[in-house]
Amino acid sequence: MRNKLFIYLLLSFLLLTILAVWSMYSGVFVFEKHSFLEIFNGIIANDGSIDPSERFVLMDLRLPRIVMGILIGSALAVSGTCLQGMFRNPLATPDLLGITAGASLFAAITIVLGSYIKPYIPEVLHYSLLSIMAFLGALLTMVLVYRLSNQGGRTNIVMMLLSGVAITAIGFAAMGLLIFFSKDEELRDLTFWNLGSLAGATWAKCCILAVVIGVSFTMLLNKGKALNAMMLGESDAQHLGISVERIKKQIIVLTALMVGACVAFAGTISFMGLIVPYILRLVFKSKYNIILPLAAVWGSILMLTADTVSRTIAPPGEISVGVLTAFMGAPIFMIILIRSRNQM
């Protein structure tokens, strides 16, 4: 099994590398030197062989965007996979549970009311305020949904989905009020967050995301066997020696942390946590010890593909990547509902 997983991961990483190179060369701007090695050798040597505009497009625009797409796609896919394993339901994703809406709402509050909030917090937190608020919104939403849907140690799926719908509705209503009271610049920022985009990628944001996601992955990617056991039921998992409550708390906090960071830097990107686990489950069933590490790579593949298409399909402009992922995810969501209905 480990040998097969290694082969799957190796092939997936190879595909991701090919897509990253394709994304680097895709766009309105065309590099004079078409060799990948020539461009990077010129940049590293700093011998003047690379035009400053080429250096800027590559190092300050495309590469940070590619890295951010890889990180965010991976984080959202793993978050969705962990939530589906914890709730034992393929519909448990950050979007449908209202976690993304909660993070987006708190981010929107920071955008519109940040000037009123900052005087009451330490100055060292001003730069990170948006990320902190997005994390708090995701965490509070996750805890609320978990409390409402948990009855006697079991998850009420109907209550879980209805809680997510209610929280999302409240989030949209509050967002409407914030849009009404916002100024022109704040309105543009809110529009960016609602649609979702990687256009604001920078190396500083990539570094923060890498730290958040790296810490989260070290604690989540080894939970495959535990999630397999939890699929049998929480009581059965406890009899097998699984610390169910500790694992659930880790999933709740770390999922909220990753979703909050992704929303803070890229806005609302829907259905990433639904598409990737669904595709992998078609091949590997519910073997989370295989699905979890593969989801980390295939989330990056899907996000990078969607972002590259979004900025090349209608040049010189670009379509928000959140719009494309919604177009991809909504049909899969309907397929899952139809299959669930037929199995009743």
Mean pLDDT: 84
Instruction: Label the overall shape.
Output: globular
Radius of gyration based on Cα positions:
21 Å
Number of helices: 14
Helix/strand/pairing category: mainly alpha
Spatial order of strands in the largest sheet: 1-2
Please estimate the helix content: over 70%
Largest sheet: 2 strands, antiparallel
Uncertain ranges = none
Q: What letter string, H or E per element, gives the SSE order?
A: HHHHHEEHHHHHHHHH
Beta-strand percentage range = under 5%
Please give the alpha-carbon distance between the first and last residues. 33 Å
Please tally the β strands and state the result. Answer: 2
Provide an overview of this structure.
This protein has helices spanning 2-25, 36-45, 52-87, 99-117, 129-149, 157-181, 184-195, 203-220, 224-230, 234-239, 244-266, 272-284, 288-312, 321-342; strands at residues 150-151, 154-155. With 344 residues, the protein is an all-alpha fold. The protein has a two-stranded antiparallel ribbon with strand order 1-2. Helix 4 packs across helix 5 and helix 4 packs antiparallel against helix 7 (184-195). The radius of gyration is 21 Å and the shape is globular. The model has no long low-confidence stretch (mean pLDDT 84).
